[in-house]
Amino acid sequence: MMQSYLFSRISEWAMAKTIINNDLEISYIITDSRSVSYPEKSLFIAITGGNHNGHDYISSLYQQGVRCFMVDEHYAIDEKLADANYIIADNTLECFQRLVAEKRHLYHCPVIGVTGSNGKTIVKEWISQLIGNSKVLVRSPKSYNSQIGVPLSVWQLNKNTEVAVFEAGISQMGEMERIASVIEPTIGLITNIGAAHQENFASRKEKLNEKLKLFANSEIIVFSTEVPFVEEGISKMYPHKNVLRWGTNLNNELQIVKKVVASSSSQVELKWNNKTCSLELPFIDEVSFENAMHAIAVLLYLGYDLKYMESAVKKLVPVAMRMELKEGVNNCILVNDSYNSDISSLGLSLDFLIQQSRKSNTVRTLILSDIYQSGIESEVLCRQINDLLKKKGISRLIGVGEVLKNNAQLFDLEASFYNTTAELLDSISHNTFKNEAILIKGSRNFEFEQVSDFLEKKHHQTRLEINLNALVDNLNYFRSKLKDTTKILAMVKAFSYGSGSFEIANVLQHQKVDYLGVAFADEGIELRKSGVSLPIIVMNPEVKSFPAMIEHQLEPEIYSFKVLNQFIDVLRNEGLTQYPVHIKVDTGMNRLGFMTSEIDQLKEVLRDLNEIRVRSVFSHLVGSDEVQFDDFTKTQINTFDRVTQELKEALGYSFIRHILNTAGILRFTESQFDMVRVGIGMYGIGVEGHKKLKNVTSFKSYISQIREVKAHETIGYGRRGELAYDSDIAVVPVGYADGLNRKLGNGVGKMMVNNQLAPIIGNICMDMCMIDVTGLNAKEGDEVQIFGPAQPVSDLAKALGTIPYEIFTSISRRVKRIYYYE
Ligand SMILES: *Cc1c(COP(=O)(O)O)cnc(C)c1O
């Protein structure tokens, strides 16, 4: 079904040197070595970025069956990999883009290129929803809009494609020209031009002009006259191009005559080609309206008539932008992805499910609704799904919908089928699921949120949301500051600074950090039990836990002769040698670690020991975030350098040296030695005066009740919060037992409601607190943010006279954690 191309033909598109040992048919291109479904039919592009070097994975991909590779000209080809084929590129990313651009020329259907600061993905999805089954459509998976995402998307174009829609995102100058030649849109659409990704552009105008380069060869540009700058920018750059402008201006090609917003829908009267019509849009907010109008304008240009639009727009549904990971009933984990339902996004969510359920014998279940994929017969589609599930090691399928049910005989794994979601919910109980990893993936109209609701472990509604994209972005930011060879130890002690256990560790392992650091053996054992296989250092090993640590291959920090001797005793008992350990040197903290005066003795002792192998030697900085201590920090670094040189000479072998924590990486980058230990920075807290890191965790609750209270009444225990005026007082079910510090009561702390700050009033109780929402237009059920992007945790820390570390790690385990990818 997937169109395939001979490797020799693909290499012609690449216009590069080739080695062909055995010409093969290729259908898929992969750039991520971790998700290979069809090795024999895949071409792997080895891309060297700041973080990974794709060439490192070639031999392991070869083991899995991949035979076709694009490599850099400096890469030394391994002769042992017999019958492998290579495209040899001066720059693999550029060559990949060139290859897809060349292939793009084979197709002559309309190709829509969407760019802009916000809304690209939604507009792309809505164009696709509106086109529905009327044409065979290809589109970018998820929000694949980067230098790599674009060629991966455009590669999907094939001889059956009738229309395509791709998004293009850029973060710096020079990027757009490269992806423009890959997409080569015939129809250009710009959504808007906001402040997102502004840091690398001198001005909004510069950013706009860079984005507009996407349309150099388009036959038309679609845009809104309601958005500032855009029209002016376009008429300057392309004075003679056809445009389709929409908005309220009388001379717009698509004119908004009137718009009325009702309680749950909006009515808009449009004029197009001298005809008017009235469309009912199933939402009321401005942003959705703008996104829908972009999509409508494109469809009208494609020739869809107003009658078609009338019924199509009614069916527009919101695009769920995130994939969530939650705790389920009976010790299950739940991944809920209602993003969009096609086979490529199914593959991506299965990869995430696998990443989060690594234990070798975990049962993996997929609850799947009929998926909508235009242009593929249902039987072919079901065979593809079955194939994919077997490749990914899914144990059980629960299918919902007529298409899946009617093709039940095509699935050869444990499977059950239901006609509707209601029928499914009638037939299952919590006991249908135990200790398994479940992916819930349903098209919007199947309303699978009911299934996810049913299977979710019920905690109270106060929750900590963890944005995994932001975590990865922060990690990559640190990587970008380091040399390629510097290793990363990611600190996941104290429940990953309050944000989670295996969920975070699995993401970090997937991102290929080198080590994890925990405080106590128990934390490491918990990670091992969930299948985390990275090396783990235990910072505070206790004698009693030594045997368990050894059993779970956890590597201790050795900080004194006493600990060293105790650990050696245990190793001798078990007859182990060369066990990896990490030596801590105290250079000024005066806490744990060998003092400099003990180093001579340490050299003597270590030299003769065969039980252990010193894997690393490290020290910890006491004031790396504060300018006033910079001289002291430099002294610590120099002492560390000297001591570790001496140890290296004495031991006669080398080991990893590391001293920098988050603030150290940002402020003393040059002292990175062989590894750094990043902690709070990954979770979004950096150092003032440096790049702002992305917010990762948001602590949220909701308003459970609002009541009017008269002036001079008091609120809560101890009659503390006396009201100065008649007030609306909201109850929020979060208290000090959840980790909301009681000192935040009586006006010290505030919470964000509807983008406005509401002070906490009266004393905070164990399980709830009260906030003053007078004049804020708040309703029961509204979300409340305790901290998050709109209320930085550092503000809260300041109000409390503490540091973000304490706030993060004080959030109680009873607060449910929800992990998501956008
Ligand atoms: C916690 C810890 C770190 C991480 O510190 P951050 O300031 O959170 O980056 C580094 N090293 C050691 C020894 C630690 O205990």
From TrEMBL:
Residues annotated for substrate binding in this entry: 591, 766
Transmembrane segments: none
SMART domains referenced in this protein's UniProt entry, alphabetically: Ala_racemase_C
Alphabetical keyword list: ATP-binding, Isomerase, Ligase, Nucleotide-binding, Pyridoxal phosphate
Limits of the Alanine racemase C-terminal domain: 696-820
Cofactor(s) this protein requires: pyridoxal 5'-phosphate
First-tier enzyme category under EC: isomerase
Active site feature: 493 (proton acceptor), 717 (proton acceptor)
CDD domains assigned: PLPDE_III_AR
Short name of any one Pfam family annotated for the protein: Mur_ligase_M
The protein's Enzyme Commission number: 5.1.1.1
Any single biological process term in GO: D-alanine biosynthetic process
Keyword Nucleotide-binding carried by entry: yes
MF annotations from Gene Ontology: acid-amino acid ligase activity; alanine racemase activity; ATP binding; pyridoxal phosphate binding
Pathway: Amino-acid biosynthesis; D-alanine biosynthesis; D-alanine from L-alanine: step 1/1
Catalytic activity line of the entry: L-alanine = D-alanine
Modified residues (N6-(pyridoxal phosphate)lysine): 493
Role description: Catalyzes the interconversion of L-alanine and D-alanine. May also act on other amino acids.
Family in the record: Belongs to the alanine racemase family.
Name of the featured protein: Alanine racemase
